[in-house]
TrEMBL record:
Keyword terms, alphabetized: Cell membrane, Membrane, Transmembrane, Transmembrane helix
Secreted as UniProt keyword: no
InterPro entries assigned: Poly_Biosynth_Transport
Its membrane topology: Multi-pass membrane protein
Organism this protein belongs to: Clostridium weizhouense
Taxonomic superkingdom: Bacteria
Predominant cellular place of this UniProt entry's protein: membrane
Lineage: Bacteria, Bacillati, Bacillota, Clostridia, Eubacteriales
Subcellular location: Cell membrane
Family that this chain belongs to: Belongs to the polysaccharide synthase family.
Protein name: Lipopolysaccharide biosynthesis protein
Length: 487
């Protein structure tokens, strides 16, 4: 009975997290399509460069304390308030640093416009410092319903602002003010929806205790962020903002889909796994369920998106964005592996083994940098293919510790996801063949989506896939539980 209650709580939290990310990502998707049709690739290239420095700065602002607060079972008001004030101080120092160094960064890339854009967009660091604590509170209490409303409201407001400014001819500043509005709106909404306020208390001892866990995550996150953005830094320097715009636009579509699913799993799984950390067998069952179910969902989405990439870009973004299609197809294959990475790494974090997490990150990044160092001399497309190769190798690395920690081997994991992979490949081949028909581009795209969806679900039902049956039964249980609660 207790396991059933935990299951329903996790699934309910996961549902709200999916809705939060799915709703905001869906609106963001529409907003980005409208903006991409108005703005030029060069505008997106500039924002992409700026985003790299903001993302790296945010790693220092949050410092892994967010995860440490979630992982710590007895975290109280002293812990949360201490981390909050420390985050604000760090955000102030990082902002000052970026403000002063903005001219040097602009000179390095020979783009004068970077100076004011970086200085204005860096203000989001302060919103991030506040939101990270609010998110930790929500995750700790598994109250993801509140994130749904804050994120959705902020995205609608900021999307409207961005589109209006783009039509008014503000160019890259439409994207800047859109992001500022989004972060500010989230902060305001969370202030009224999350029942947490910082108190006038600060404890060096509590911060020190949390830092003993979080510093490894800080280093891991910093290495990962630098590594993930290194390609964009190189493309922006070796080529031009427009090419970086194509590269990142190709990354956006699959990233939008997978980050919704993967991010939801990550947010819910860490507190869920942490609560069961003393029961290794239970953790293994939860990790296995996460890998099997998420792969069943993600594999067909990524393979299907790669297949319909060209007609989709032509229709949604116009022909000026066609150079992004090859990037999109490569990134689809790379992002298909993300749920496997996430489940393994979250299990390691939940068990309190941030030392292993750090070692894995160092190994993966050394390997990835070597691949990048070779691929960068063969062009931008080779750099993209290098990310796929790195991702495949990383699945081995991330799964290895869980053989000892959970008795869940890499071979066993791939055995679990192989049925979904084979079914997705069959669906992709059939869907791809439709492009050789003489139908219009619109009818071709609609036919491919309908045939792919029906074929995948139909085959899963015919062959009685365990994960498909599990999803159906879970949905039925949640509906029944919802009705019971209402009655």
């Amino acid at each position: 009975m207790e396991n059933q209650n935990i299951k329903l709580k996790v699934l309910s939290s996961l549902l709200w997290k999916y809705m939060e990310r799915g709703g905001t990502q869906g609106i963001q998707f529409i907003v980005q399509i409208v903006l991409a049709r108005i703005l030029i690739p060069n505008d997106y290239g500039i924002i992409s460069l700026i985003a790299i420095f903001i993302t790296i700065a945010n790693v220092f602002v949050q410092s892994g304390f967010n995860t440490a607060l979630i992982q710590k079972k007895d975290a109280n008001e002293t812990d949360f308030s201490s981390v909050f004030y420390l985050s604000l101080v760090v955000a102030s120092l990082i902002y000052l640093f970026l403000f002063i160094t903005a001219p040097f960064i602009a000179n390095f890339y020979d783009i004068t416009q970077l100076i004011p854009v970086l200085r204005v967009l860096s203000i989001t660091l302060f919103f991030g410092a506040f939101n990270s604590i609010q998110n930790a509170v929500v995750s700790k209490r598994m109250q993801f319903k509140k994130l749904f409303f804050s994120s959705l409201g902020a995205m609608i407001l900021s999307g409207t602002v961005g589109i209006v400014l783009a039509y008014a001819g503000f160019g890259v500043w439409a994207l800047v003010l859109q992001q500022l509005t989004n972060q500010f709106s989230i902060t305001v909404i969370l202030w009224f929806t999350v029942k947490w306020r910082p108190t006038l208390i600060f404890s060096f001892e509590r911060v020190k205790g949390l830092f003993s866990y979080s510093w490894k995550l800080l280093i891991s996150s910093l290495i990962d962020t630098l590594y993930m953005n290194l390609r964009s830094l190189i493309i922006g320097k070796m080529y031009n903002p427009a090419m970086l715009g194509f590269y990142n636009r190709g990354d956006q579509f699959p990233q939008l889909i997978v980050s919704n699913i993967n991010g939801s799993i990550q947010s819910v799984m860490l507190p869920a796994l942490s609560s069961e950390q003393s029961n290794r067998q239970r953790v293994k069952e939860m990790v296995r369920r996460s890998i099997v179910t998420s792969s069943f969902i993600v594999f067909p989405l990524m393979i299907g998106l790669a297949v319909i990439g060209e007609p989709l870009v032509k229709i949604l973004l116009t022909d000026k964005w066609l150079p992004c299609v090859p990037f999109l197809q490569v990134f689809c294959l790379s992002y298909a592996l993300w749920p496997i990475h996430t489940a393994n790494l979250q299990a390691i974090n939940a068990l309190g083994r941030s030392d292993i997490f750090l070692k894995l990150e160092i190994i993966k990044k050394i390997m990835g940098i070597i691949i990048l160092g070779v691929s960068m001399f063969y062009g931008v497309y080779a750099i993209a293919i290098g990310t796929l190769i790195s991702g495949i190798i990383s699945t081995f690395i991330n799964a290895y510790p869980n053989l000892k920690l959970l008795n869940y081997s890499y071979k066993e994991q791939w055995k679990d996801i192989t049925p979904s992979l084979i079914l997705s490949l069959v669906m992709g081949c059939v869907t791809y063949s439709i492009q050789w028909s003489n139908m219009s581009i619109y009818l071709t795209l609609i036919t491919q989506i309908c045939v792919g969806t029906i074929l995948y679900i139909g085959m899963a039902k015919i062959f009685k896939f365990e994960c498909f049956i599990y999803l159906l039964n879970t949905i039925k249980d949640m509906i029944k539980n919802k009705k019971g609660a209402t009655i």
